[in-house]
Amino acid sequence: MKHKFSLLALALLLLPCIPAWAAGSPWDDMKTLEASIERTSFPKADFNIVSFGAVANRPDKLCTKAINTAILTCSSKGGGRVIVPKGVFYTGGITLKSNVNLYLAEGAILRFSTNQKDYLPTVLTRWEGMDCYNIQPLLYAYNESNIAVTGKGTIDGQGSMEHWWPMCGAVKFGWKEGIISQRTGRPKLQKAEQSMTPVEQRVMTLEDGMRPQMFSPYKCNKVLVEGVTFIRAPFWVMHPLMCENVVVSGVRVQNHGPNGDGCDPESCNKVLIEKCYFETGDDCIAIKSGRNNDGRKWNMPSQNMIVRDCEMKDGHGGVVIGSEISGGYKNLYVDNCKMDSPNLERVIRIKTSTCRGGTIENVFVRNVTVGQCRECVLKIDLLYENREQCRRDFPPTVRNVFMENVTCQKSDYGVSIDGLPDLTNVYNINVKDCKFNGVKHGNKVTGAKDVKFTDLFINGQRSDQ
Asked: pTM here?
């Protein structure tokens, strides 16, 4: 009896060390996480931008001052809605303040200027995971609380083959010799990041050609984006950075520009993305936590995120973790999503490298229906961007990935894993009760261990291991 009591005591002692996903259902944990996300709430006070001097349908008259004044007035008076009524309102950079809900009425369009000078002065931000000062994101907030962008209107960044997109430096997006582009600024910023130059000295100029994000709240708490449509972004569409309690609901993203990611939460905690539609020129959702030295310096993982009831069409990946993931990631829940496009390359993708490092763990995916994707349903890649010039002594880890009840009707591969040669960095990968049809090459697994397929059917044939 004494021996049995000792074993019981030891078990009870070790119980707190068992991860929640191992002790019970991860989907119960998802419900607990959702309930813990703090939501925005605003006073019933309205501030119409027209009352502050905004004029609709005048391309020659920017409403930047009127809109920002309305926001400042609303915030200073305790908060409420800043209303953009029906009509097309041209503007430069907009800065959100605490307790302000920027509300776009049905038929309202915020059409942003294509002139870089309309987004000065520069602000503190991150660009592809690297800390810097750059021209202001079209919609920006810094260290604010209880902010929102809602309504049935449209936010138009005016990205095109003539404006913004050529600045990526790619000929296929309109770049020609002599056009200012990130061919100048990106290497400059990468060098500063690799040498750990203080961020105060990383001030990007207009000649550096670094396109701004469309909506980027930085170090904000309680952020809501609901109902609006984003089109033609210069760069990434939604980029919450170091934020907590973020909800993105019922949003429509149509953006085929270069680096046109739909939603990129970076070093964020408690994020819900639901009932959204994504059609993008890059990843639909890409979770990040900083690039290389900058990510390791902050050591702020992205964590505790839910993606559910979303539809993904074109994109490099449906739900992606990486590649700027040096701060790590944990606890992702993807539930009840639909994906289908010949231009959707992967469904679930984890991409990192020995430059990036980071630990990515506890990824749960279920009930995803895929018409077709181009490459594979599940992609884990630890060899991403191997041409990058950087220190390569930060081996990443990917572990505890669970996929169940996922169907796909067409792809090149079912599961594709490219790990590192020693087999210690990718493990505990589980695919259960899935059916992948129209698969050209089956599965491809290298550099991984503890990979388990249970009731996985490839083209109607069981593919368990």
From this structure: 0.94
